[in-house]
Amino acid sequence: MTAYQFTEEFAREMDAQDVLASFRDEFHIPHIHGKESIYLTGNSLGLLPKTARSHVEQEFLDWQNFGVEGHTDAKNPWLYYHHFLSKQAASIVGALEKEVVVMNNLTANLHLMMVSFYRPTSERYKIIIEGGAFPSDQYAVDSQAKFHGYDPKSAIIELKPREGEHTLRTEDILATIASNKDSLALVMLGGVNYYTGQAYEMEKITQAAHAAGAFCGFDLAHGAGNYPVKLHDWDVDFAVWCSYKYLNSGPGGTSGVFVHEKHGNNPDIPRFAGWWGHNEKERFLMKRDFMPTEGAQGWQLSNAQIFPMAIHKASLDIFERAGFDRLRAKSITLTGYLEFVLNSLTASSNLDFEVITPNDPEQRGCQLSVLVKSQGKALYDYLKAQSIIVDWREPNVIRMAPVPLYNRYLDIYELGKTIQGFPG
Ligand SMILES: *Cc1c(COP(=O)(O)O)cnc(C)c1O
Questions:
Q1: What pLDDT sits at residue 9?
Q2: Domain of 33, in residue numbers
Q3: Angle at 372 between CA 366 and CA 376, to 5 degrees
Q4: What is the pTM of this model?
Q5: Residue 185 included in any domain
Q6: Domain identity same for 291 and 327
Q7: Do residue 96 and residue 231 come from a single domain?
Q8: Which residue(s) pair with 192 in the sheet?
């Protein structure tokens, strides 16, 4: 364990020893108010990889030069473009290649997954989600329940922290699953909660859901590229994620989907179908009856969105070179440093705040959520005026995410010094 110090010298020494330090140069760091920012919002929108432009330019060129023939003649033939992403995307979420496909956007994919894995009956119709889940997830599960004729008030069970606590205890999650075992259809949680930064014990939750006779899926919007998951080994039924947060693939970028192989090879699983999910060998025979291609790809609807996927490819190449294990190791130390600096500030600054993210690294990714008891918005505005970009969540939380690909220990030191100077 590193003996942290809140000094510039220490931060510079840590950066000097960082084997991943050069990856920062592969990203454009935004300039805000005329100077290079300290960017701590990779949890919200990851930064632009410098290689993204040439990846997109390749597709412009091929479109320009080949027109429709680009489907087969492009350097990366568009007909097969999703194949070029599956292997790297699978390694980010601990999946087999055929269990993963990149397509659409996150909320759309969440609905597609629930079409397959939320099939309520009069006995089994409940969905467990976390209370205060990301709004899109709440709307998605509520609307699915309604679509099937159930009242969300009785169909949706929200997990809440205990009185006086901010995060969920695994034992409480498991107990809620067990106590609803006769009526539970689905457990669907954010793998890493967007607000608190808590990473849930996904393997145990999956086991409990299965023991209760329910399916289990995760929204990894804040997990993918941030927190290590092993979706295949954990026997998770499905997962979805977006690519524009930790995966640096641009605003509104494409999304990823995981379907466990035990379901992916079952053509009888009900799904909403489209031609890109049809048996690839026969796609252009334009036959009448849908026969899904094996694996997650069988859930595709439309032909691949080449441009956002080209950006995603640029980013996944960087992840592959950096190696997720190394990124995670740096992430733990870097976030530990942020926690250390924040804790040293509670003693010395004009602010009253508390880190509500669990302090166990196993229960979090890189994000720390700081509950500021008063003047939170003023602190956020003050930091922004000093070109430090963190993220404000009503009513009183500032989220900060030191991303191991492009953040430095020095960023954390400077954040700490700046907070120390907050006039209050
Ligand atoms: C970011 C995020 C979303 C956003 O959904 P889109 O469909 O990509 O707009 C949904 N759910 C969670 C948990 C998120 O963190």
A1: 98
A2: 8-50+323-420
A3: 105
A4: 0.97
A5: yes
A6: no
A7: yes
A8: 199
Number of domain units in the chain: 2
Q: Give the integer Cα–Cα distance in Å for 416 and 348.
A: 11
The Cα–Cα gap between 282 and 162 comes to: 54
Nearest-CA residue for atom 14 of ligand 1: 221
Amino acid at 397: V
Q: Does the Cβ of 241 fall within 6 Å of ligand 1?
A: no
- DSSP conformation class of 417: H
Both 366 and 299 in a single domain? no
Looking at the fold, whether 225 and 360 belong to one and the same domain comes out as no
Q: Which two tokens stand for residue 234?
A: 């954990």
CA–CA separation, 138 and 128 (whole Å): 11
Whose CA is closest to atom 13 on ligand 1?
134
Cβ contacts of 133 within 8 Å, gap of 6 or more? 141, 158, 189, 190, 193
Q: Is 134 in the pocket of ligand 1 (CB under 6 A)?
A: yes
Give a yes or no: residue 3 inside a domain.
no
Q: Determine if ligand 1 sits within 6 Å of the CB of residue 107.
A: yes
C-alpha 81/C-alpha 311 separation (Å) is 12
Q: Is 194 in the pocket of ligand 1 (CB under 6 A)?
A: yes
> Based on the domain organization, do 223 and 367 belong to the same domain?
no
Average pLDDT over every residue of 4-8: 97
Ligand 1 pocket, residue 190 CB under 6 Å: yes
> Coil, helix or strand for 227?
coil
pLDDT tens sequence across 198-247: 999 999 999 999 999 999 999 999 999 999 999 999 999 999 999 999 99
Q: 114 with 167, same domain?
A: yes
